[in-house]
């Protein structure tokens, strides 16, 4: 039985050898059913193997967020520039057209709001599998709290969601939460991303860090990096570029797009980095061009 005493530190990630892909281009999904692959194919561009996700689920713990006061006005114009929308069932149903040509990732868990210091202490199912099926969800997102008091409960929610998703062909996105007191190091993200994949996540959303190439190599499913707090546009593009170069298969940005001075320009610039390999400088020129039109 594995334990945490006397283990040798992992070090051999074989960064020079890509993960074996057998018959399908999305990392770790070769043995999934057709429906699961179909939904993953909507999320990950087959030309690049990567995805640009637009997160607008902040209100589920924060209420109205700067830039998301009117989701019905802010998000629909950005749909042509992204692969996936990530939101709650309430906002998707009320603000996004069913005819919108974009994949939908539904956040299916709730957590404590920002009124509580430790968000991990409260949580449960906010959208069950039947509701996700009725919404024709392409993915279900579960928040997890590795290293926090709510770790056990969140991992159970992840595992139960992954079981239901496997039954009906809907991928599960495991989200690595990072609280105020939690470390943001290679060591932590190596642990957290691998734990989520081991417990059934088909995709993992995490953060970029020093040593990210080892984090990506050790995770057998695609890692999509979170944008995090609002950064200057060029810095956000640099982070996205480094992450993709080091093994990420996409970005899930929210504030770095909808809080930008030009959200459409930023969404397009991120797409150039993620799908076409643009350098940060080249992508920033795209942003500036759209902004000045």
Q: What secondary-structure arrangement, pairings included, does this model have?
A:
Blueprint: H1 34-43, E1 51-55, H2 59-62, H3 71-74, E2 84-88, H4 89-95, E3 103-107, E4 109-111, E5 123-125, H5 129-134, E6 139-144, H6 151-168, E7 172-176, H7 186-198, E8 203-206, H8 212-218, E9 223-226, H9 233-245, E10 250-253, H10 255-258, H11 263-276, H12 280-291
Parallel strand pairs: 1-2, 1-10, 2-3, 3-6, 6-7, 7-8, 8-9, 9-10
Antiparallel strand pairs: 4-5
Distance between the termini: 62 Å
SS elements, strand count:
10
- Based on CA atoms alone, the radius of gyration comes out at 18 Å
- Strand pairing plus helix content: what structural class? alpha/beta
Strands in their spatial order, largest beta sheet: 1-2-3-6-7-8-9-10
Low-confidence stretches: none
Largest sheet: 8 strands, parallel, barrel
- Report the average pLDDT across residues: 93
The number of distinct helices, counting runs of at least 4 residues, comes to 12
H-E string: HEHHEHEEEHEHEHEHEHEHHH
Account of the protein in words:
There is one protein chain. With 293 residues, this protein is an alpha/beta fold. The chain has helices at 34-43, 59-62, 71-74, 89-95, 129-134, 151-168, 186-198, 212-218, 233-245, 255-258, 263-276, 280-291, and strands at residues 51-55, 84-88, 103-107, 109-111, 123-125, 139-144, 172-176, 203-206, 223-226, 250-253. The protein has an eight-stranded parallel barrel, surrounded by six helices. A two-stranded antiparallel ribbon has the order 4-5. Strand 7 (172-176), helix 7 (186-198) and strand 8 form a beta-alpha-beta unit.
């Amino acid at each position: 039985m594995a334990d945490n005493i006397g283990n040798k530190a992992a070090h051999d990630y074989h960064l020079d050898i890509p993960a074996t892909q057998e018959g399908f281009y999305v990392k770790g999904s070769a043995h999934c059913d057709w429906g699961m692959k179909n939904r993953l194919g909507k999320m990950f561009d087959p030309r690049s193997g990567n995805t640009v996700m637009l997160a607008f689920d902040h209100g589920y713990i924060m209420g109205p967020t700067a830039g998301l006061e009117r989701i019905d006005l802010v998000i629909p114009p950005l749909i042509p520039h992204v692969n996936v929308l990530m939101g709650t069932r309430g906002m998707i149903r009320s603000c996004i057209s069913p005819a919108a040509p974009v994949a939908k990732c539904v956040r299916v868990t709730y957590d404590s709001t920002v009124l509580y210091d430790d968000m991990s202490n409260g949580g449960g199912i906010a959208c069950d599998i039947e509701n996700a099926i009725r919404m024709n969800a392409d993915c279900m997102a579960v928040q997890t709290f590795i290293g926090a008091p709510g770790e056990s409960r969140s991992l159970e929610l992840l595992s139960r969601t992954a079981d239901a998703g496997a039954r009906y062909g809907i991928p599960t996105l495991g989200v690595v939460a990072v609280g105020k007191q939690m470390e943001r190091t290679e060591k932590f993200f190596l642990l957290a991303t691998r734990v989520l994949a081991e417990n059934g996540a088909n995709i993992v959303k995490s953060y970029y860090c020093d040593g990210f190439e080892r984090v990506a190599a050790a995770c057998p499913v695609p890692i999509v990096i979170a944008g995090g707090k609002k950064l200057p546009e060029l810095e956000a593009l640099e982070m996205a570029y480094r992450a993709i170069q080091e093994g990420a298969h996409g970005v899930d940005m929210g504030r770095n797009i909808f809080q930008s001075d030009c959200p459409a320009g930023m969404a397009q610039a991120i797409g150039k980095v993620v799908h076409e390999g643009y350098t940060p400088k080249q992508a920033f020129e795209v942003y500036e061009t759209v902004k000045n039109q």
